[in-house]
Amino acid sequence: MFRTDWTLAEVQALYHQPVLQLVAQAAEVHRQHQTTGEVQVCTLLSVKTGGCPEDCAYCPQAARYHTGVQAHKLLPDAEVLAAAQRAKAAGSTRFCMGAAWREVRDNRDFDRVLNMVTQVNDLGLEVCATLGMVNDYQAERLKEAGLYAYNHNLDTSEEHYGEIITTRTYNDRLDTLENVRKAGLSVCSGGIIGLGETDEDRVKMLHTLATLPAHPESVPVNALVPVQGTPLAEQPRVSVWEMLRMIATARILMPGTMVRLSAGRQEMPVTEQALCFLAGANSIFSGEKLLTTPNPDFDADQQMFALLGLTPRKSFKNHVPEGATVLAKAEAAVEA
Questions:
Q1: Angle CA 223–40–215, to nearest 5
Q2: Which of 185, 256, 174 shows the shortest CA–CA distance to 219?
Q3: Is the dihedral of CA 247, 253, 255, 256 positive or negative?
Q4: C-alpha–C-alpha distance, residues 232 and 99, integer Å
Q5: What's the alpha-carbon Rg for the chain, to the nearest Å?
Q6: CB-hemisphere CA count at 13 Å for 104?
Q7: What are the CA-CA distances from residue 69 to residues 132, 192, 232, 295 (Å)?
Q8: Direct distance between the N- and C-terminal alpha carbons of the chain, in angstroms, rounded to an integer
């Protein structure tokens, strides 16, 4: 079992080490608990874009901001399934569907998402969703439909949170994570740096994640991609050294977790991404968009994998969820 009793002082001491010392320590933890050179490849598709009633200061999908994002209703099932098939053919093993909702509502749209989940699960992919807040009943329905993981980021520290979002509370986010965990879903939760927070805010967010009753199975580390029309449009780009501190500290605190190098990767040359993999990152999003922001495409990532000697992680490695298809179980058995 991995520690969930980290003190804030311990996390501060880890985070504030000289960066090369921190990366070296994280690399050693990574070698002990992960397969070196193996990276999970995920694809994220916006199945319902724009028109969100929330006020997240970084988000171009908030209805109150004028960002040029074209809102659209839920995509047709066939379009989502085709996108999942293309992602699998390109090497992705996890397919995440995002909807710009504040919360899930028990209506026909949710029923359609459940059907999408089932169809993508039948392809043998790990299916993830990020749909806003969910209650325990909705999380259970997603699990029954074949969902593997649910993403709900903390975004930042509890202390800084009110500067970024006022339309839901920090505890609302923690409640959703608890509902996801109770339903037996894999938990995906991380945050964004570059929101005007301090180093101590970053430390506190990592401390919160690492002291949940169980570590999230996935922790995305996002660098803000500033978008014109949002309140954070003029924020400076996050440096690779800031990303390294976040990734390396997350790896040490949560050795068994997939640490995902997420938004902001489009602006990072391969040399910077290589440092992040060395520091313990072992998951990426591949495909030209992350919901509405630019991201490296499949071809660029395949070239990077070849250059760095990286290999894609298989679906359902070390775990076959209840409700997985015969295909998924067979593929997992071959890997065991």
A1: 70
A2: 256
A3: negative
A4: 22
A5: 18
A6: 26
A7: 19, 20, 16, 16
A8: 21
Mind spelling out the 3-state secondary structure of 73-121?
CCCCHHHHHHHHHHHHHCCCCEEEEEECCCECCCCHHHHHHHHHHHHHH
Helix (H) or strand (E) holding 183: none
pLDDT tens for each residue of 267-314 = 889 999 999 999 999 999 886 655 556 667 788 888 999 999 999 998
For residue 164, which phi and psi values (nearest 5 degrees)? -110, -35
Query: Is 276 annotated as contributing to ligand binding?
Result: no
Nearest Cα to Cα of residue 189 among 134, 115, 112: 134
Q: Which residues of 31-40 are buried (b: 16+ CB within 10 A; e: fewer)?
A: eeebeeeebb
Residue 110 has pLDDT above 50, yes or no: yes
DSSP 74: P
Exposure on the CB side of residue 28, measured as CA atoms within 13 A: 5
7's tokens = 């003190």
How is the chain split into domains, by residue range?
8-310+320-330
- For domain 8-310+320-330, is the CATH number 3.30.2000.10? no
Question: CB within 8 A of 13, min separation 6: which ones?
Answer: none
Annotated binding residue 59: yes
CB 232 within 8 A of CB 57: yes
Catalytic residue positions, numbered: 52, 56, 59, 96, 128, 188, 260
Tell me if 17 sits within 8 A of 244, measured CB to CB.
no
- Please enumerate in sequence order all residues whose Cβ is within 8 A of that of 226, keeping only pairs 6 or more positions apart, or say none: 58, 194, 232, 233, 234, 235, 237
Is 42 annotated to bind a ligand? Reply is: no
For 245, the 3-state DSSP assignment is: helix
Half-sphere exposure of 217 (CA within 13 A, CB side): 17
State the average pLDDT over residues 180-197: 95
